[in-house]
Design brief:
Oligomer: single chain
Order of helices and strands: HEEHEEEEEEHE
Pfam families: DUF192
Organism: Haladaptatus litoreus
Structural class: alpha+beta
CATH superfamily: Protein of unknown function DUF192
Number of strands: 9
Protein name: DUF192 domain-containing protein
Radius of gyration: 16 Å
Shape: globular
InterPro entries: DUF192 (IPR003795), Saro_0823-like_sf (IPR038695)
Helix content: 10-25%
Distance between the termini: 16 Å
Strand order of the largest sheet: 6-5-8-3-2-1-9
CATH architecture: Sandwich
CATH class: Mainly Beta
Length: about 190
């Protein structure tokens, strides 16, 4: 499928809106602001945070050794917007994979996210681009929230408990593979 500029702009607007970001008239991404907050209130901290019913098995391959993970799939705009907000825990080797239609620069933030996370940006061919360690900012305003970005276009973003990447030796260049079919996006 050929992506037209108009289709690309429409896609960016939808994706940026899901992440609480805006698009400037020149196509650049705006910083988060109060108007982009569509998140749940703090009183919903114990509720399930996504409608994710799909889990996938995948692995990070470092020096020929596999680290198997179970990932909830966030492949719709609503699921990507909600992510791991309000979660109080994650089982070991369990996280979430954000799936996008195409590889593009990705930016995440920790709004309403209670757990420190490793944010692992992955290219379309399954190569880890970069890993960011993200800390919760419970009392930060939208303008104060730190942003975590991919160094290159990413098709997948995996979030795991912070420290996972360091413990397992996951860094730029590590391979990431799905066991079975790769998840695709939903509209």
């Amino acid at each position: 499928m050929r992506v037209t500029p108009a289709l690309l702009v429409a896609f960016l607007v939808v994706c940026s809106g899901c992440m609480g970001l805006g698009i400037n008239s020149d196509g650049s991404v705006q910083s988060p602001d109060q108007s982009g907050d569509q998140s749940a209130t703090a009183g919903t901290a114990t509720q399930e945070t996504t409608n994710v019913e799909e889990n996938v098995s995948a692995a990070f391959v470092t020096n020929g050794e596999r680290t198997n993970v179970t990932l909830e799939v966030a492949n719709s705009p609503d699921e990507r917007s909600q992510g791991l907000m309000h979660r109080e825990s994650l089982p070991e080797n369990h996280g979430m994979v954000f799936v996008f239609d195409e590889a593009q620069p990705q930016t995440f933030w920790m709004k309403n996210t209670l757990l420190p996370l490793d944010i692992i940006f992955i290219s379309a061919d399954g190569t880890v681009i970069n890993v960011e360690q993200a800390d919760p900012q419970p009392n930060a305003s939208d303008l104060e929230l730190k942003q975590y970005s991919s160094d290159e276009p990413a098709k997948y973003v995996v979030e795991m408990r912070q420290g996972f990447a360091n413990r397992k030796g996951i860094e730029s260049g590590t391979k990431f593979v799905f066991d079975g079919e790769r998840p695709t996006t939903e509209n």
